[in-house]
Amino acid sequence: MTKDGYDSKRIRAENLRAGSLARGHGLSYLHGIEELGIDIEDSEDPYLAEMGLADLEFQKRGGLEKGIVKSPVPRTVKESNYRKFYGFGNEIYGRQDNRAVDEKRRLLAEHFPRAFGNNGKNCSFDMTFGEVNTIFDTLIESTKKKYNL
Fold it and tell me: Which of 47, 102, 135, 148 has the maximal Cβ count within 10 Å?
């Protein structure tokens, strides 16, 4: 605690607890209440704290590697997908007209759904023409260069 009564560790722990409670993140919530000295039974959400204990046990048993949960689905796009994308996309590469942009949006969403699909990080259907053209043309150029096409 500083001279003016400001306890930064306690405030950080309180923010961690409150934020984790709001997000439903058990492990962070558990760390927050432990730093504050609150028992699991006395916390506002003992179930969430128990989930944090389960996550902690999972980590101890080797379920986590370097703090990242291994995904059963590979997060990288396969070379064959890039080649298919290039095969379809090379025909409209460089075109800027509306029909070409609509086709580029469709190809981005079809071949890279995690990034540009309807539920992706950046849905291609929500992007401007300029954004779609830039991303599409960059992907075509990098695919051509990477796989010597």
Answer: 135
